[in-house]
Amino acid sequence: MEAIPEYNCVLTTCPYCGCGCQYYLQVLDGELIGVTPCKTHPISQGKLCIKGWNSWQYVVDQGRLTKPLIKKDGKFVEASWDEALDLVAKKLKELKEKYGPDALGYLSSAKTTNEENYVMMKFARAVMGTNNVDHCARLCHASTVAGLAATFGSGAMTNSIPEIEYANVILITGSNTIEQHPLMGKRILAAKEKGAKIILVDPRAIQLSNFADMHLRQRPGTDVAWINGMMNVIIGEGLYDKEFVENFTEGFEELKKLVAEYTPEKVEKISGIPKEQLVEAARLYASGDASSIVYSMGITQHTTGTDNVKSCANLAMVTGNMGKPSTGVNPLRGQNNVQGACDLGALPVVYSGYQKVIDEAARKKFEEAWNTPNLPPENGITVVEMMNAAADGKIKGIYIMGENPMLSNPDINHVRKGLENLEFLVVQDIFLTETAELADVVLPGATYAEKDGTFTATDRQVQRVRKAIEPIGESRADWEIITDLANRMGRGDIFPYKSAKDIMDEINRVTPSYAGITYDRLDKLGRLPWPCPAEDHPGTVYLHKDGKFTRGKGLFFAVPFLEPAELPDDDYPLIMTTGRVMFHFHTGTMTRKSRELNREVPTGFVEINPADAEARKISDKDMVKVSTRRGEIEIPAMVTERVPEGIIFIPFHFKECAANVLTNPALDPVAKIPEFKVCAAQVKA
Amino acid sequence: MADDKRVDELGKAVKEALDKGEADRVVGLKVDSDGSVRPYLWVKGDDVSALVISPKYPLSTVYRLVHEKHPDMKLGIVARGCDERALVELSKRGNIKLDEIVLIGIACNSDEAQECVCHVPYPTKISAGDKVEGVDTDELLEKIKGMSLEERGEFWSYYFGKCMKCYGCRNSCPLCTCKDCKLEQELFVTPGELPPEYPMFHLLRAFHTVGRCIGCGECEAACPMGIPLTKLYKLLRDDVKEMFGYEAGMDPEAEIPLLTDLTVNPIESGEGGA
Questions:
Q1: Which residue of B54, B194, B219, B223 to mutate against A (max A Cβ within 10 Å)?
Q2: Which residue, A3, A67, A139, A482, has fewest beta-carbon neighbours within 10 Å?
Q3: B73 inside 8 A of chain A by CB
Q4: d(CA B37, nearest CA chain A) in Å
Q5: DSSP A547-571
Q6: Is residue B253 part of a domain?
């Protein structure tokens, strides 16, 4: 019998947002031919967004990196794996010996698997001797991890996606949910059809605005003020949950005292939200038996990001909307595996499972597990700090896996200075990105479709990624590359991995929250939400059940309002804010390879209110110049009421008109997340 | 359980077709260890105990994809009534050849017929299950028909306003096989807008289903926003039946009305005028 045809539907997890849709990659005779939704999957339920439907196209794009590249005389030359990896091993050793381990930095990737993030952070710590390992969570939800860990004891989404459908009131802020987490957006509208009330707090008018019962449009960067204002009303009118506050929380009196200052009148002056609207929204949120807060980067990407997150936590706790189904504080994570990359310790302060590097017991545990004495005891540095240190000459070499800081970081011109100042830059990626172009060595990684592993969705659900086709060209799975490199650097003893499963076996042993999440169980159950401390544990769908917070009692923080780092002035009179569109993802590296997605939105644009446009004699589709203190870009104007007067919006996907040339790299002092969402700008015809 | 019996019968039929060499492969459904169900190409020697019948998938699409690549392969398909009707329409458009198909028919049960509001919940040849009566009454559709023009406008503008432009309705349609999709042409629909231009996007697609929509419901099943697309298309199917006497997928010999009336036999004067 002839061997062909081979038609396979391989169940895997979408590589775009954090919803965690699973679908089938269709493979015919070894060739990837498309995506078909999985009707039995609890999140996707046989449905996908446009990015999901087209998520196979970049895998087979002609522009994929297929061979290692070494830069010689300013030009990339193809090399063998042996040549490239020997060179990387040699250079890393040299730099470490010459400048010390902390002169090197490592960027892991929220696009790669849990197993790969674990291996990358282990490589940085055990082989290279530094905690300078971080990834793009720093740019999206670092403030969530810091803020919710401080208030609740666990820095993750408290409840799960399906629960939202049964909430009575949903407060959505800083999340363009239908566009950025479409299958979560679907649940929100389903909740609405079941009778839920929707409160949207967002400066922009978005598709969700049409379905919201209330749309409050705050001035960007005033979130602490309006949330304090809501609590002012809720506490002042006695609408708070006294029993919950008394039994399960601490710090209420300080909070009460502080929010008393945030009268609706005062909040109106700060935020621009009419006081009547604020009062009504506060009453509405407090009225629900199950009120849920949903937020995303509109909350986190501020110099007060951690404060904003703590404020959301305060609001949920004050009303007792914690530890019950369909309630909670629900940050929507932007990347397929940004939750997992954090969980697995690709952060400068923790090993896997948020075990702190400064905690001696944790360190000892990993020294033993990794057979490596003297793991570095100090916290490492973060993404933006790493770029600054490179510019200052303190960091000499960086190894980047699957990240594109030349488009994703704030103040790109400064990032370029930093990366060009390095003695050695390695970039491991699937395409020759803007960042890879600056590298000394480029290593071709394999995509999600070409390897095994797991991703962790925004609601802590761990799911399998399954290999559908052989890696394109000579590309290799990221974990294989790092394992090979560790071997070349003499640490094959602790990098014995032959498969992604081997790595998960080790993760199970050293990571209490992942202890029961094995491949065998995932193949039977499909998905498991952490914490899952044992093989007979069902996983934890929602956190802090019955008011039993991970940290003991929920901790209120009395947070005063602080203005953003940069405010409009005469030279730069507009507030610029950034974000994304339905049809593209982050730096466009993947989505811009898709004909269908590019056809919808081929390039960037600046949304500007008709009044601001008219004052500048700007018409729709005119090419305009947008400038800030960091730089200037040329970009087509979109004259639209979507943005209020005084505010402009630019999606950050597009290198030819990169919003992040303009953004402010000022950092949140705790979480070190930059203030992507507010800076002062000018637009000229 | 009646359903177990149906699966059993189907498994036997598939196995027999493969064992006897009537088919080299059979397109069907398979359940995996985690309970997920996927389209699968059954081959001789496979353990058919993992064969299942629901949830239904657009299997005619899988048949078409495999057939395009392997036109000489003897290819079977597990087909419900709608799958068979999709194959009939595909054959009329030259995508496949009806007489080459090894059709292993399965009759839907009355719950399934009810859920799909299916008029003919069985194929012409049945290997598993028993024929049940078709369903003629569609509550939501009757409600829509009873609406005033204004109410209907409101009804559809609410649902179309939810559209996230995933193209899932088109992508999952067994009959959407056009190389150049009109939904993607800037002349008709402005790209990049959310929701897509009202009502052009949805009405354009609706009119393009004329003469081919077999009412399988895959479009609505794929819609993240729960837009009742099958109702819209059913209204058009009824019109096509009334005006041209044509029911998509029912009669392999009947000619597609768009071909006959527009190119071969011009509409007689007095008929079909404005």
A1: B194
A2: A3
A3: yes
A4: 6
A5: G-BTTBSEE---------SS---SS
A6: yes
pLDDT digits (tens, 9 = 90+) for A252-310: 999 999 999 999 999 999 999 999 999 999 999 999 999 999 999 999 999 999 999 99
**B199 and chain A: CB distance < 8 Å anywhere?**
no
Q: CA of B169 to nearest chain A CA: how many angstroms apart?
A: 10
Q: SS3 of B109, please?
A: coil
Question: Do B25 and B72 share a domain, yes or no?
Answer: yes
Domain A7-60 of CATH type 2.20.25.90: yes
pLDDT, one tens digit per residue, over B52-83 is 999 999 999 999 999 999 999 999 999 999 99
Domain assignments of chain A as residue spans, ordered by start: 7-60, 158-332, 574-684
For chain A, say whether B69 makes contact (Cβ under 8 Å). yes
Half-sphere exposure of B83 (CA within 13 A, CB side): 29
Average confidence (pLDDT) over B189-204: 93
Say how far apart CA A299 and CA A297 lie, in whole Å: 5
pTM of the entire predicted model: 0.96
The CATH code that applies to domain A574-684 is: 2.40.40.20
Q: What angle do CA A495, A496, A497 make, to 5 degrees?
A: 95
Give the closest of B38, B165, B222 to A11, CB-based: B38
For residue B179, is pLDDT > 90?
Answer: no
Q: Domain count of chain B? A: 2
In a domain, residue B131? The reply is no
Query: Which residue among B32, B73, B168 places its CB closest to the CB of A47?
Result: B168
Q: What is the DSSP string of A294-328?
A: EE-HHHHSSTTHHHHHHHHHHHHHHTT-SSSTT-S
For A149-199, write each residue's pLDDT tens digit: 999 999 999 999 999 999 999 999 999 999 999 999 999 999 999 999 999
End residue of a domain, out of B50, B83, B116: B116
Nearest to A509 by CA among A523, A487, A491, A494: A494
Q: Provide the pLDDT for residue B2.
A: 60
CATH superfamily of A158-332: Dimethylsulfoxide Reductase, domain 2 (3.40.228.10)
- The domain in which residue B52 lies consists of 2-116
The amino acid present at B183, given as its one-letter code, is L
Are B105 and B47 within one domain?
Answer: yes
Note whether residue B130 is domain-resident. no
Q: Has residue B274 got a pLDDT over 50? A: no
